[in-house]
Structure formats: structure tokens, C-alpha cells
Amino acid sequence: MKKIVHALFVFVLALMFTGTSGNAQNASLSLQGILIQDNGQAAPDSFYQLTFKLWKSATSTALVDSVWGDTFDSVKVTGGKYNIVLGSGTPLNAPFDQAYYLGVSLGSGSGAEYMPRPRLTAAPAGLALLGSGNEFTSGGAVGIGTVSPNASALLDITATTKGLLIPRMTDAQKRAIATPDIGTLVFQTDKIKGFYYFDGALWQHITGSVRQVGEQYAGGIIFYVDAKGQHGLVAALNDQSTGAEWGCSGTPMTHAYGTKRGCGEANTASIVDKDSCATAGIAARLCDELVLNGYSDWFLPSQDELDLMYDNLKVAGLGGFGNAAYWSSSAVSSTTARSQNFSDGTQSSSAKTSTFRVRAIRRF
Questions:
Q1: Total number of domains in the chain
Q2: Cβ neighbours of residue 134 closer than 8 Å, sequence gap 6 or more
Q3: Which of 231, 296, 306 is nearest to 264 (CA)?
Q4: Are residues 114 and 139 in the same domain?
Q5: Helices (H), strands (E): how many in the chain?
Q6: What is the full per-residue pLDDT of the chain (364 aa) written as tens digits?
Q7: Residue 327 in contact with residue 300, Cβ under 8 Å?
Q8: Left (φ > 0), alpha (ψ -120 to 50) or beta: where does 58 sit?
Q9: Cα separations in angstroms, 15 against 67, 79, 103, 130, 262
Q10: For residue 42, is it left (φ>0), alpha (ψ between -120 and 50) or beta?
Q11: Is 227 inside a domain boundary?
Q12: Beta strands 46-55 and 20-21: pairing type?
């Protein structure tokens, strides 16, 4: 028979783990090789004794460069091809944290290896992703920039010249995230910029001194914040009535005509101070007399404040508002006042005797 030479093709077919030892991995690596004669013909079909070794070097035979070795006594070769599972005999406990070279020889390993030794490339090196205690692991701590991740952390990122960059997006993009899981973290690039996390119900700014629209705070849900994110307006979490009159029909309300943001509190105070508006259950009194979540300074929103609630809460699906008309505290005449339909946002001048929904607000 002609002299047998060797060619090797390595494929990761199966990765099986039966334990770990430090940074090493008790793994099995399935590979396929070809034995050919020096005339280029396949080796005769038979059973051969083959020895496999892993080396740190492509040429060195020094013991210090040897990583692993095993001899297989009866390797079936058909058409020159054979399949073998390294690690099925002698455990393949090797830390796949560098390049290795595979030595193959006929017999028990005393003979010369076929050269050149093929280098195990990316696929077998992927074993470094598995096990525990490695730079990248499927169990235990994961280290990026360190081969010794801190035992107290699942992910340990070590660097002195670079940082961690998490997803950056606008407020609208953040709110469009479908079913965010609790603890989801993003960086918001517009409006009140900064890091936000999802608490299971709402997106919260990561710094406690900055408030945001949609956050539950100060007894209700925020629908307006100032430029510094520290002060604003909150709406009660529920309607105070689903059918209340504005009241005071026929009574001029000279000091309750304010429509701008900031007028609701004064409007409400003016309404309840009128002797002719003492009727219990009218919209302004429901708000003025409300004690909710430890707060007693609620009032009926002005026209613009009501519109802010619609734009910033109702349109965003927040606050539990109905698709119905809500009263503002802004009077129009002795018999009419401003209301807003929360099904489409339209504002109207309505008879004070109409029965609409009421939602109280307060400042923080």
C-alpha cells in the first residue's frame, strides 16, 4: 500500500458538557477527516488506530505546548473518510481561550504527525462561549475585558477608555416599545433627556428629582411638567363623576373665565365661593372637596389644562379616561361653560346644566 497521508476537515457537530474545571471545559468535539495515500487515492477501507493531540503551536513538540491527547484503536475509514468525537474517551478539558492546532498520527502516537497541523478556527473556538468561569460563558459570571469576572455580577465589563452604550431613542420611540419588561432601560434623547426604566406600569426617569408626563406621582398621574421637570400638574387616577352639572346656571362668573394653564385653581375657588353655587355635587365642588391619596388641594382644570390632559394622557392611552365629555372650570357666560369631548378632543361651549364627566387635578 502506498504511504498514507492525511487531510482534515473540522465541523462542529455536537457540543456536550459534563462538568467544568476552572477555565477548562469537559467538552466533546465532533470532527470529520480524510486519510489519503501519497498518490492521491483514498486509504483502503479498514479500521485504523489514530492518535489526536491538541497543540498550542503549529510545529512545537514540547510537552509544555501539548494541551490534550487521546488514541482511538478502531477508527472506521470508508472511502478515506472517518468521523470521530474528540473527548469521548479522554476528557477534552481545554480552555478554548486561544488558537489550537490538531495533531493527527497513525498508531499510538509514537510516530510522526501529519503536517501541517490544521488550526482549529472560529467554530471550535466558539466553545469558549460555554461553561462557567470563561471570558464569555453560558453559566456563571460573564466577563467583557476581563477573564476573571467578579463573582457578585452576572456581567462584569472592565474598561478604562470606553463606556457602555445602551439604546438611545426619542420619547415617542420609547413609548412605542411593545410590552416592555420590568427593568427595561433606555436613554431618551428629547424632551426631558436622560435614562428611563420601565417599572412594570410606567416609564420612570432614573433620577428622582426629574418628573415626566405619564408618571404616577403626587397623588395622581402627571400630565404636565415644567422645563426643569420638577413642577407641574397631576390628574386624579379616576373620574370624580361620570355625570355632574357644571352648576351655577344663571349666575355670572366674572372671576371664572380664565382658560389658560394655571387658571383652573383660581376658577375653582371663585366658583365655590359663590353662595349661589353651594349645590352639592357640581363639578367644581367635587374637586374642591376631594381628599385623595393624602392630598386635599384638588381643583377643576381650566380649558387649557383639560386640553393638556387630553393630549398628554388620553391620546397616549393613559389615565383611564372615558370617550365622553369632561367639564373644565372655564365659564363662558351665565349659562354656559367650556367642555371637551375626550373621544376626539373637540372643545365646546355647553349648557351648565349638562351632565359631563369630572376629573380633578392638582399642582406639585
A1: 3
A2: 23, 25, 95, 96, 97, 128, 147
A3: 306
A4: no
A5: 5, 25
A6: 455 655 544 433 333 333 333 444 566 788 888 888 777 788 889 999 999 999 999 999 899 999 899 999 999 999 888 988 888 889 887 777 778 898 888 888 777 888 888 887 655 545 555 555 554 455 667 788 887 888 888 888 999 999 999 999 998 999 999 999 999 999 999 877 889 999 898 888 887 667 888 888 999 999 999 988 889 999 999 999 999 999 999 998 889 999 999 999 999 999 999 887 889 999 999 999 999 999 999 999 999 999 999 999 999 999 999 999 999 999 999 999 999 999 999 999 999 999 999 999 999 9
A7: yes
A8: alpha
A9: 19, 26, 20, 9, 67
A10: beta
A11: no
A12: unpaired
What is the secondary structure of 279-347 as a DSSP string?
A: -TT-HHHHHHT--BTTB---B---HHHHHHHIIIIITTT-TT--SSEEEEEEE-SSSEEEEEETTT--E
C-alpha cell at 295: 392630598
Same-domain pairing of 338 and 290: yes
DSSP 8-state assignment for residue 208: T
Cell of 57: 503551536
Q: Are residues 288 and 344 in the same domain?
A: yes
Residue given cell 479498514 in the structure block: 46
Residue-level length of the chain: 364
Q: What are phi and psi of 29, to 5 degrees?
A: -120, 115
Tell whether 26 and 104 lie within a shared domain: yes
Q: Are residues 251 and 354 in the same domain?
A: yes
